[in-house]
Amino acid sequence: MNRPMEGVRVLEVAQFTFVPAAGAVLADWGADVIKIEHAERGDGQRGLVRVLGYEAVSEGSSFFPIMEGPNRGKRSVGLALEKPSARRVFEELVRASDVFLTNFLPGSRAKLRIDLEDIRAINPDIIYVRGSGFGARGDEADKGGYDSTTFWARGGSAAGVTPPGADRMTRMPAGAYGDSMGGLTIAGGIAAALYSRAMTGEPSVVDVSLLGVGAWATQFTVNMALMAGGPLPANPPPRYGSLTNPLIGAYRTSDGRWIELSMLQPGRYWPEFCKLAGREELAADERFDSAEKLMANAAEAAEIVAGLIAARPFAEWTEILSRGHGQWSAVQNAWEVGQDASLRANGLIAPVVDADGVDRELVANPVQFDETPATLSRAPQFAEHTDSVLRSLGLTEDELIALKIDGAAT
Q1: What is the mean pLDDT of each run of 10 residues along the chain (410 residues)?
Q2: What angle do CA 71, 217, 227 make, to 5 degrees?
Q3: Backbone phi, then psi, for 358, in 5-degree steps?
């Protein structure tokens, strides 16, 4: 199997999901990722036992999906970087690494001496990567952010999905939603930086912000607003269909499920849909018998489509629509996504064995090489690899014990 990051060493000093997710992707691609966790507290995300109202852990098990997703495939070293005795070990790890990856804020980076100048003084060839809330420059460079605030709310997604006049803002559809997209973005940036270094011999500084990822995700409407020179007018879609196409949008089935249609050429797909729905005569109806008429009478046609879909259950409609060529999709919940036939056929729901030896599954990152699914390994337990990694640096047993007595290592 082609693992294009084989031989690349990544040193990660980061918490939660945004930046650690990048390390997980690189580990999927073959990189050796060493995660530095505070010797006493570990990654702050390990303490999140409830997320979005759900229990984040399975009682009696070490399997912890909120840590597994952004940390699979790594080695964990417990190191208190604020302790002077930990510095030697840390610097040895920096020297042996190709990439330094962090989401610590500028003040913390300065205090711990892990800023760009500090790291480059140890290893001039290292690629230095910062994930931030608002970017490395400007008045908010030292301000933290989470994906719910910086990516979702400030980046435009929340306003884009919250209907005008709503009494509450629409929330993110999943935990770490923007963080996961941001992590994949960082991984791509690191890959480009490694290629650049190989071609030029010069290491890069890579910056990715949650706000930047959020704006990139909503770029269509942001670009439209920039062209217009001001906020876009409220343009709520009709209840069914679009203003000119009845075969676009979500329709509810008789059992309360949803089907999303996206047949962008209404004149082409209208006769097929009518035939599949058992109403072939509608294609010849004088209101809808040409693309121009169908677009002009889209609202009336959409009400008919809504009635047709509301008359049959979800399973029946998914079978019916699968016989046609028009584009549509079932609206799936999280469990159904995990069982999705195409995801599984492409190895994008991947097996992993947890720390207790139990077979589990995780969503794989969506990038594959040579049509080969990634092979996942579990996330490390807290500080699981401290001894083995420090011994590989040449530390003796006495030196290891001294670091642990000092509280510099776990």
Answers
A1: 90 97 98 97 89 80 92 98 97 98 98 98 98 97 96 97 92 95 98 98 98 98 98 89 94 98 95 97 96 96 97 98 97 97 98 96 96 95 97 96 96
A2: 160
A3: -90, 135
Q: What is the pLDDT of residue 1?
A: 57
The pTM for the full model equals 0.94
Q: List the structure tokens of 127.
A: 């690629």
DSSP, residue by residue, 375-405: PP-PPPPTTTTHHHHHHHTT--HHHHHHHHH
Q: Is the separation of the CB atoms in 249 and 327 below 8 Å?
A: no
Q: What is the DSSP pairing of strand 32-37 with strand 9-13?
A: parallel
Residue with tokens 């499920």: 257
Strands 258-262 and 248-252: antiparallel
Closest C-alpha to 300, from 236, 237, 244, 235: 244
| Cα atoms in the 13 Å half-sphere on the side-chain side of 251 | 29
Spatial neighbors of 91 by CB under 8 A, at least 6 apart, are: 122
